[in-house]
């Protein structure tokens, strides 16, 4: 093998202890290969004094036993430092790469779970907490769901940027969780900078400078320094300076939805059921001055540097609400780190996420059960505590085998903060978030409650949260199926997009993005979510096309309609088909419309479920005859879900008789109501008097019984009934229905009042 080997002929150690000299290559059957360099020694194998085998002249110069010891030590280091390694490899655990790793990993958390076998209480806590919070794949899939939803919707939305926030977007889906959405108006963008030197020229937007209030470090004033267009929010303050006011900003956003009853909930606007909170805000691409030290202060391994860099690059949000003890101050805006906090939570490992869920459950089921301290604490305080503890502790502290220990660290920090009545904001420690909440007059009784949790230990915690029952100690064997159902219900709760696009180019961008996610995502659930958005965007594009009755190149127009409408039927069982029925009605093919509405009505059976219905029961859904565990999300939705039909502003698919209804951004109609309305209009054109009256009667019964109808769409349904009565010549009945539509408490169809006023005009 090497003609220049020094010991080839002279080394006689091969006969030592009576053993024949055997080469390494002969033992392992490795063929010789040419080597361009010069080897000084040929690898040899011997029997050592202790009876083992010894490899000499090899690259490492190690015995097999030494190699085994080093290999085992390496494996042990990888196990003990697993979280540190994962943090380096996957700093963003909401990424598709990390979700793919979890789905393909065969021994994730296996060693830690083996350690729990000797700790029955810790094991019980872990298993029941996972049953409430979800597996790590469940959590990451939820996070991915909101990321995908925001990215696609913001791509095709022409009016606003949607930012999902709150515990749902962070990955926790606990009972009672609301949908929190922060909105930035694209049409009224503003630049908010730290100082005048940060202004970039040329100026494209109205520009404000942050002026932090020393007495309220978590708040700032927004002083206007350049104005791109005339505004109505600016009033003189402190001489000739102009500042952006809070209340007019909120009122203007209220007026953007004048026909819906909204309720003020802090800085948010909520619907009647308070299931969705909208917070309209402004974005600054810069952090305020007093938050800059956060990026450079001493910390252990968390958060990862790449997450810190992303937070600095994004900046912060300005929310229109001031301090509670300065409610009349119309100039202070709260600095919100909602996006930064979501990035931080997305970098949590599984133990940190479980600890977060355990803290929230303890607040709800233990602390808030005591009327004397109820509402003194909030989940935001608990999240802040977990941020501080995660930063101060070694990342390897957060292992599943140490879950209760991590919870105890957070509880100890909370007790220390309550004792001094000071909760430092994670980004601005000078901002005491306990102000106006916890003080020396109420902290003693809260301390008693918290210390009772501490001294109760893990047994007391389990008893309070999970009602320990030795007779029923096993976790359900259908956890995987239950997890998939919960994920589907979360998506049904979100109910697709909240934006109404107005331009085809932006919709095409949304299609391209959705298609790229379909090709790149690893989760089949997320892929189906992207397919839903792909179908929904096709429904939007079909309504933004030129009228199907356009004389020039009519064939090409119809071909485009068919392509988008066919792709649009994959959202649910009926809404896409009803848009197709509208298309055939608009081009005058009434018999085709009647056949399609017949099909839609046959699908709207009592066992079907409405999208966005908050009253669904997961248990009933699992037992439904329409649900099969082997089907994908899209297949299940096409079998068991019905949705309203949403006509965009100036939709090309709206019947001419309803053209007035699409002067506003969106017009929503329940599926059965629209089916009977289209049938009435078709028979009206076909001169089928008896069939027309039957369709009108069926429409009346549908509205009366609120069939597949929610608060959204009820006023519109009554208005459509009035339109059909007016077309049939019964103006008195039409007047009554228009009047009833105006009196709806939740949402009022804007055209009901117009039609009522014009009803008896000559």
Would you mind describing this structure in some detail?
With about 750 residues, the protein is α+β, with helices and mostly antiparallel strands. Strand 11 and strand 12 form a beta hairpin. Helix content is about 50%, strand content about 10%. Among the domains are: about 5-70, no CATH class; about 190-345, no CATH class. Strands 6, 7, 8, 9, 10, 14, 15 and 16 form an eight-stranded mixed β-sheet that branches. Strands 4-5-13-12-11 form a five-stranded mixed β-sheet.
Topology at a glance:
Layout (H helix, E strand, L loop, with lengths): L6 H4 L11 E2 H5 L15 E4 L5 E4 L7 H17 L1 H8 L6 H9 L5 H7 L3 H14 L2 H21 L3 E6 H5 L8 E7 L4 E4 L12 E8 L2 E11 L7 E4 L3 E4 L2 H9 L7 E3 L2 E3 L5 E5 L1 E3 L7 H5 L8 H10 L1 E4 L13 E4 L1 H9 L3 H16 L13 H14 L10 H18 L22 H24 L12 H16 L9 H17 L3 H21 L9 H14 L7 H12 L3 H14 L5 E2 L7 H5 L10 H8 E2 L2 E4 L17 E4 L1 H15 L3 H17 L8 H14 L3 H12 L7 H9 L4
Parallel strand pairs: 5-13, 6-7, 17-18
Antiparallel strand pairs: 1-2, 2-3, 4-5, 7-8, 8-10, 8-16, 9-10, 11-12, 12-13, 14-15, 15-16, 19-20
Helix pairs in contact: 5-8, 7-17, 8-18, 8-19, 8-20, 12-13, 14-15, 14-16, 15-16, 16-17, 19-20, 20-21, 21-22, 22-23, 22-26, 23-26, 26-27, 26-28, 27-28, 28-29, 29-30
